[in-house]
Prior knowledge:
alpha/beta, two-stranded antiparallel ribbon
Amino acid sequence: xxxxxxxxxxxxxxxxxxxxxxxxxxxxxxxxxxxxxxxxxxxxxxxxxxxxxxxxxxxxxxxxxxxxxxxxxxxxxxxxxxxxxxxxxxxxxxxxxxxxxxxxxxxxxxxxxxxxxxxxxxxxxxxxxxxxxxxxxxxxxxxxxxxxxxxxxxxxxxxxxxxxxxxxxxxxxxxxxxxxxxxxxxxxxxxxxxxxxxxxxxxxxxxxxxxxxxxxxxxxxxxxxxxxxxxxxxxxxxxxxxxxxxxxxxxxxxxxxxxxxxxxxxxxxxxxxxxxxxxxxxxxxxxxxxxxxxxxxxxxxxx
Length: 303
């Protein structure tokens, strides 16, 4: 049975200072990520600021990114929505323009509208009929509990549910239980949340990671060495990058990758749409101070 592995970062969505989409910048983001040796790319995810992007812009970005990637690496398109018909339509659009798979959170809207276990199952089953592999995103943002028995049931009963991005608290424990209970049905156990718990998650059975696009070239060796059985080498590589990853996770969020890409000449602006505030200049400076000793591709790509 096929297995999914490696590093599949989330592409940030660049905006001009006035808030409009920077489509040439989007092309450069994609090229920079591919030049860092990523195994795949995810678009329109939370770290792409999907919650600040209109439906029309989603279609433009999906078509632009898939056309620009042109098959160089597989692309995951995030399609999460509370309404099942909209999630299905998004999956169909992604399929029709060449996506390799889709990623989705369970149905939720705000703090109170949360899909039940059965509604979640039904939505994933409906999207599965589109015919693309699905990555289940188990993220705190949704507020929906996805217990391991439900995930295993979906993996066994819904043919297209193959991958699982586990980024809930104590992700390693959940990954370990998911792999143990799901067996061969769990084709791609991944972690997320900027690789802040990557070593523990790899030890628990994760075969891949969905990080930000900040330093995938420096995170990739951790995954590769661990997969090759060199845990000590993976641990050493992880210790080198962890201060930067921790700072990104705790201080910057999705603004970190954009700040690094501006510094490296990949994009012209690290603007985010209101109400997201810009990084404080001191925070940005501290981030770059942690990144420079790592000499990542992103800081030199456009220079």
